[in-house]
Amino acid sequence: MFDISFTELLLVGVVALVVIGPERLPKVARTVGHLLGRAQRYVSDVKSDIQREVELEDLRKMKEEMESAAQSIHSSFRDTSDSIREQVEEPLNQMRDEIDSAKASLSDLGADKRSNTQRVESGSEGTSADAARLTAQDSSLTASSASRTAEKQPEKPAPKAAPNTAQEGVPVDISRPKESEQKS
């Protein structure tokens, strides 16, 4: 540690014996030993404190890394959910717009039909041919509007045929004759 050889240590011991004296030398040696022991414990405590701080710093760094990873995952999840929401809302908004325009056209058709009916009833057109033409025009507009609405709605599967049942809901087997018919 201090690079002291045995001869140098022996020389220090002889000088201490001469300076301190043989009666006080064991007491001084004991005191020096206690001081060196305290110094070693103090150094080891400082080392362990430094080691603990280094470990805590590593834990803090790891905690910060975990928090940043969690934040990045949270932001990517939020971005993904926002993009999915936009993709879903766009067709819904288009469908709402189409429904609103269909309602508006149906209400316009109803208003046109009422006004045409009022004109026919009031006799402003004057002939029954004109009334027939207006009625045919209204029915063709209504039919085209109904066909557009039917095109937008998906086809529903036909309902299944109900099983052949008796009055109480029990299936009836018509392939075998009843027991009363077999006895006769």
Automatic annotation (TrEMBL):
Residues 76-88, 149-158, 175-184 have a biased composition (Basic and acidic residues). The keyword Transmembrane helix applies. It is found in: Cell membrane; Membrane. One of its GO terms (cellular component) is TAT protein transport complex. Its main location: membrane. Part of the twin-arginine translocation (Tat) system that transports large folded proteins containing a characteristic twin-arginine motif in their signal peptide across membranes. Together with TatC, TatB is part of a receptor directly interacting with Tat signal peptides. TatB may form an oligomeric binding site that transiently accommodates folded Tat precursor proteins before their translocation. This is Sec-independent protein translocase protein TatB. The lineage of its organism: Bacteria, Pseudomonadati, Pseudomonadota, Betaproteobacteria, Burkholderiales.
